[in-house]
Prior knowledge:
The complex is a heterodimer of chains A (387) and B (366).
Chain A: E1 3-6, E2 12-16, H1 28-48, H2 51-74, H3 81-104, H4 129-142, H5 173-182, H6 184-191, H7 195-199, H8 205-233, H9 238-264, H10 282-291, E3 295-296, H11 300-305, H12 312-317, H13 326-340, E4 346-347, H14 349-362, H15 377-386
Parallel strand pairs in A: 3-4
Antiparallel strand pairs in A: 1-2
Helix pairs in contact in A: 1-10, 1-13, 2-3, 3-9, 5-6, 8-9, 9-14
Chain B: H1 3-9, H2 12-17, H3 23-30, E1 39-48, E2 59-66, E3 78-84, E4 91-97, E5 109-114, H4 120-126, E6 133-136, E7 156-162, H5 166-179, E8 188-195, H6 204-212, E9 217-223, H7 230-236, E10 244-250, H8 251-261, E11 268-273, E12 286-289, E13 294-297, H9 303-309, E14 327-337, E15 343-344, E16 349-352, E17 356-365
Parallel strand pairs in B: 7-8, 7-10, 8-9, 10-11, 12-17
Antiparallel strand pairs in B: 1-2, 1-6, 2-5, 3-4, 3-6, 12-13, 14-15, 14-16, 14-17
Amino acid sequence: MSNTLTTKNGKPRATVAASDPKIPNLTPEQLEEFGDELDAIRQRILADLGEEDAAYIRKIVKRQQQFEIAGRALFYLPPAWPLAVAALSVSKILENMEIGHNVMHGQYDWMGDPKLNSRIYDWDTMAPGENWKYGHNYIHHTYTNILGKDRDIGYGILRMDEDQKWRPYYLGNPLYAFLLMIFFEEGVALHDLEVDRIKTGERTWEETKKVGKPIIRKVRKQVLKDYVLFPALTGPFFLSTLAGNAVANIVRNIWSFNIIFCGHFPAGVATFTEEECENETRGHWYYRQLLGSANITGGKLFHIMSGNLSHQIEHHLFPDIPARRYPEAAVEVRALCEKYGIEYNTGGLTKQLWTVARKILRLSLPTRTRNTDPAPAAPADADLVAA
Amino acid sequence: MGTITTKLLGSKAVAALTSPHGVDRYLEMFNPMWAATEVRARVVSIHRENPDAVGSAPVATLTLQPTSTWRGHRAGQYVQVGVELPGSARRMTRCFSISSAASLPGERITLTIRANDEGQVSKFLVNAQPGQMLHLSQAEGEFTLHESAATPTNNHLVMISGGSGITPVMAQIRTLLRDGYDGRANRKVTFIHFARSEQDQIFAEELAAVAEGDNHIDVHLHYGDATFSEFELRRLVPDFKNTDTWACGPGGLIELIRAAYGEENPRLRVEFFKPPAFSTGAAGGDVSFTRSGESAENTGATLLEQAEALGLKPEFGCRMGICFSCVKTKTDGTVRNVLTGEESSLPDEEVRICVTSPVGDCSIDL
Lengths: 387, 366
């Protein structure tokens, strides 16, 4: 059976995730209504933004700074090394997830505070904010899970979807994923270089230089801070501080990698083709964001430490709304999903991670073609040409 | 804080250590008056300037103690003041002329502010309490005296102001009297001011004292319907077109003065306040892209589309209001967010041009 996505004028255009019967077929009218309802949620939350949201992000920044001060200071006490690493890891996770990622999304631009402004803030990681905002805020959030267009972390190095053609290189899928997890910071920084596209000639040397220079500058800055200045400040404990900073960065890497990979790669998350998404309506865009993202359940602290990216679905529907509002939006989004019969992909961290791991392993081998697959490509394409 | 401490805290090494937030985020945790790079100020006192005024907005002078990062100001400059209004958490930033004489780094300054009906920030400031912290910029603006009061000269200076436009001119007169010998300006100064009424005249006592004193300054105050006339100016200063002149006031007054001096007269320096923008509720009016110098009739389309129609190539991304690639500053006019329908007339507001359309006249820094 195949499910059909439709254009503005109601013509069936292409099929989506035909192998997954759980994805419902919404009529153009339904899609429009669905979009309007999500717009209404968005509007309501935007109108309600105010002092509480400002106080919240300021409090998180303050906490993060306290953890950072504690972590940096504890390196002067060698027996407290594990504590120092722990405090610094928490600080780095909070900064990257709940502060950096969200502030750089413009979620707090409305406050008019230059310290929390997406155009000014540059997070504590090797990826320069300028590059990341282009690749993430624009490309990934606009073209979410459209193969060949979404250049979110993963697609460049790993095989994360059956529709990516298998090559022997992908036998190393699990190994690459593991290395990417450990060196996530470096991976994200280099990601915007789009090395694969330099190789294929899609990207010129000039363009690469423009992206590369800020990376070199930012990497230098981060290395100077974590591996030269702070270790030097602890004098005789230079090496133990350096090691501690490295471990904290890796702890943060592992955590971010896991949260982020649970956002778009668990079982049941749909991917799309470029043709399916041409001239899409706002309702269709919302629909694709919903089908292309997955949540992780957990307690309040877990949500904060994940920068509320545990609500990846709500984040993708409303990327510019302060993340602390996602849990409240989730209640309404879930109700909408039930109304339209769309599956709301959520589960515990272990469950979601397990399905991601299985996917990484499974896709390292060539995909066996299934006989049950219908062959809808031809009529869909014909329709496209006609339109 | 001492200069060495400030220098050290403002160094690149400390910036690297305290990234991404910067050293000021740590300093302010301990004391709101500690800063290494940014400028803040504490309200020391507030003095109501026109307690007897009837039917006109209250005016108050705020004495501010800036942080040690304040680099001082030249008479006639202004400063951007940022406040988080209670209940909204949104920081609003507005420009105010400094009314006190030129200051050295770290010195106190005063702002004299009229609480306009429309002005949320000015209303808040006029009613602020001592102890209130404000965000400041460094002093800005070129509406300044170019000569030192300490050096006597034969140059004749003319100052013309209207309403609240008196503040930067007052700063200049105060600087001349403070820095000259024996409380004299040491050059001939003709000061002409237009106010709504005698009760509405701010700095009235000080102006009376200046007028009476033997200080080389002539004061001419006009009230009510009196407007600027070239004839009268010529009577006071026959060669005014060749005399260094500073004029500050509402747009209408400045237009009259400009006409009298002739276009592009280098002797005339002006500063004026913009009238508040009002929404016309529809398309129409003109859209100006000030940086590129392009303008056209407002078609009602989004600012991004209108800019592109004029052949401009502003940066953009998603074109649906989610990625913030296309944010630009709207300097003037009213705009509507096409997603929410919300209209806004705030000056110097950052907008996503892909989901913002102008309502009536509008200027964008693009």
